Amino acid sequence: MAITKQELIGDPNDKTKEMYKDFGVMLEDVIQKGLDIRVSLNENKVTGWEKKQQQIIISILKEVLEKIDGIIILSEKYSQQNIFVLARSVLEGFLDLNFMLKNPKRALAYIYCKSLDYISKYEKMELSLEDQKGIKLIQQELGEELKNQKRKQFQNKKWMKEHMLNWKSFYFKRKNDDPYKNSGSKLHYSFLCAETHNQMSLVNNYPKDNEFYIREFRSNDKIGIGLISMMIVVFSGEIFERIVKLYIQKSLSDLEVLEKWREKMIKKSEEIIKLDNERLFGTTKLNVEI
Q: pTM here?
């Protein structure tokens, strides 16, 4: 007997629809705040390597904001499982930005190592000569600057062989400095990786009697949207504050406005967590901690 995709799409209840609506509105606020900060960065008059570092940070911030926009699009279709996949990419962008903003020179190492990786992966896939020339120019320019800053590392062939594609290695000071290893981000990253790599397929597709069945498309029978909302709010607020303090250097009153925005977003996220709990468990108890 044939079955269609439409037959597999469940109808979310009113609480689920309310949660996704509030989630989308909150994410729109995050994107707008990020765009406002990006405009301020563009207006900031810096030169030399500091400008290149800032341009890299702006570029990555834009990519993260666009992925958040993708989550909004998926929210309109109540596509929870695919939201988890994009949320992992958003978290990676935030963690990389956080690491760079602690020492902006890391941005140069980021692009240098990514360009090497890009060439190694795509040189056999008919990458245009123009693209190859542009990427190699980046490598040469940034490589010379990194050599000036990290001459001992570049002269150590063994170190270079082990660390060339690991951009964090160039300015890595302490093991606990790795943003992917702190307790909060490690937990959320592991959860999102499991969803991204289909490691939750057995859990998602088997009922209690151990009989296989085809789960609903766009199923919303799991907790998680509340956690993602809080994750995005907390990390975006931290990133925005670091950027403002480092590059924009606005007055104390401007920082206070940003802090009030963060507090407002956290309250919105807490309400989404309550809805996420209530629609599944009948309770509004908060059970998500970042």
A: 0.78
- Of the pLDDT bands very low, low, confident and very high (cuts 50, 70, 90), residue 286 is very low
Q: Which residue has the tokens 């009989």?
A: 211
* Long-range residue pairs from 39-48, CB within 8 A, at least 24 positions apart, any chain: 40/244, 40/248, 40/250, 41/243, 41/247, 41/248, 44/247, 44/248, 46/247
* Helices 225-243 and 80-102, packing angle to 10 deg: 20
Distance CA 248, CA 42 (A): 10
pLDDT tens column, 222-257: 778 998 999 999 999 999 998 888 887 666 677 888
Residue with tokens 């998602």: 204
CB 121 within 8 A of CB 174: no
Q: Which long-range contacts (CB under 8 A, 24 or more apart) does 33-42 make?
A: 33/236, 33/240, 33/261, 34/61, 34/64, 34/65, 34/236, 34/240, 35/65, 37/61, 37/240, 37/243, 37/244, 37/248, 38/62, 38/65, 40/244, 40/248, 40/250, 41/243, 41/247, 41/248
Q: Give every CB contact of residue 251 below 8 A, 6+ residues apart in sequence.
A: none
pLDDT tens, 142-173? Answer: 666 666 655 666 566 665 555 555 655 655 55
Tell me how far apart the alpha carbons of residues 17 and 14 are, in angstroms, rounded to a whole number: 5
**Backbone torsions φ then ψ of 47, nearest 5 degrees:** -135, 175
Which of these, 227, 224, 232, 230, lies nearest to 92 by C-alpha position? Answer: 232
9 has which bridge partners?
217
Task: Decide: 185 and 96 in contact? Cβ < 8 Å.
Answer: no
CA distance readout (Å), 43 to 46, 183, 193, 245, 261: 9, 36, 37, 15, 22
Nearest to 166 by CA among 123, 202, 209, 112: 112
Q: Residue 9 in 3-state DSSP?
A: strand
